[in-house]
Specification:
Largest sheet: 4 strands, antiparallel
Number of helices: 10
Distance between the termini: 70 Å
Order of helices and strands: HHHHEEEEHHHHHH
Helix content: 40-55%
């Protein structure tokens, strides 16, 4: 019996040592993730002249960005039918990165004249300098009378239609894609746009793009990054083959 107790105590001691080592490993893993994100952002900033050159070609292709958004396996599920009518007037998407810290950026949707709003640019700004606490700045959409696509999702008492958060926005079947521009956070969708859709736009347009991080896509599809990707109900390949969920329910 004493031998069993000694073996048990020895095992517990070994497990505690393993746990301490794993914590040290996780610190390095976190550092690696941060450094990879910073390096990715640095090179995205370097690509800016090429993206500007690319836009000269994109401008010749009708409904280029609408097609890209609708072919993205996650973003397509957030677009209502009337959203698509408005996004058909989208002329460009720009990701404007801070030269001082390229992980911080603005997502800019450039629109031509349209019947929905008077803005020619819809802007949402993200500052990730404080890790784990994104600072988000929303710019107001000036909707034309009777054309506010986000009106049905605005809650009584909500200021400026914001405060929904990523999870609620992605799961709310009544939420227009344009609600994201009022969302008090929205950093998960911003990441998909800035670091996946935007750099891979050409491949999404022709339908050959594959995400570098299927787990990230699955996590967003299931309602947020806090959900384990393995618990998600569908893979990105399945999502790509599925009809747009919101519109499918209305067709």
């Amino acid at each position: 019996m004493a031998t069993d107790n000694g073996t048990h105590a020895e095992l517990e001691g070994s497990l505690k040592e393993l746990d301490a080592i794993n914590k040290d490993i996780n610190v390095l893993v976190d550092q690696l993730v941060d450094e990879e994100a910073a390096l990715h952002a640095k090179y995205e900033l370097k690509k800016a002249p090429l993206y500007k050159q690319r836009q000269g070609v994109i401008a010749k292709i009708p409904k280029f960005w609408l097609t890209c958004l609708e072919k993205h396996p996650i973003i397509t599920s957030l677009i209502e039918m009337e959203d698509a009518d408005a996004i058909a007037h989208l002329e460009d998407i720009e990701i404007e990165r801070s030269a001082a810290n390229p992980i911080n950026y603005k997502v800019i949707f450039v629109f031509g004249e349209n019947p929905y709003f008077s803005n020619d640019r819809l802007v949402k700004e993200f500052d990730f300098s404080d890790k784990g606490n994104a600072k988000v700045t929303n710019h107001k959409i000036n909707w034309n009378e009777g054309k506010d696509l986000a009106a049905s999702a605005k809650k009584p008492g909500a200021e400026n239609g914001g405060g929904s958060g990523d999870d609620e926005f992605s799961e709310n079947e009544e939420a227009s894609f344009f609600c994201w521009f009022d969302d008090e956070n929205g950093s998960e969708l911003a990441d998909l746009i800035a670091n996946d859709l935007y750099p891979n736009a050409g491949m999404y347009f022709v339908g050959t793009a594959e995400s570098d991080d299927d787990d990230e896509l699955n996590g967003y599809a299931s309602g947020g990054s806090d959900v384990d990707a393995n618990e998600s109900g569908a893979s990105s390949e399945e999502a790509a083959e599925a009809p747009t969920s919101k519109r499918a329910k209305r067709e």
